[in-house]
Amino acid sequence: MKNSECTIYIMFKGRWLQKFRKEKDVWTLTSSNGTIRPCTAEQLLSHILPPLAGIKGKHVTVKVEPTKPKYSAGKNSATGEPLK
Questions:
Q1: Which residues pair with 53 in a beta bridge?
Q2: Cα(49)–Cα(47) distance, rounded to whole angstroms?
Q3: Residue 52, CA distances (Å) to 2, 20, 49, 61 in order
């Protein structure tokens, strides 16, 4: 799995607080109120390492989910042309 094929969520009691996605060469941080900001890989690590280490409390978790493909079934994923 590539970085661009997943979304990282920082969650508190089952609701996500922050969402990280990689698009092209940039990581983006989306907050729960909808604000979208670019961030570096170092900033991403500084956000996800404390919950992974358990120092943010037992209710803060990190969840990684695969993103849905951006192509429809029956088409070549590389070119977008219909399969023969």
A1: none
A2: 6
A3: 20, 15, 5, 7
- What is the identity of the amino acid at 61? T
DSSP string, 11-63: EETTEEEEEEEEETTEEEEEETTS-EEEE-HHHHHHHHHHHHHTTT-TTEEEE
Q: Tell me: the pLDDT tens digits for 30-75?
A: 999 999 999 999 999 999 999 999 888 888 999 999 987 665 555 5
Could you identify the residue written with the tokens 């070119």?
79
CA 13 to chain centre: 18
For the chain, state the CA radius of gyration: 16
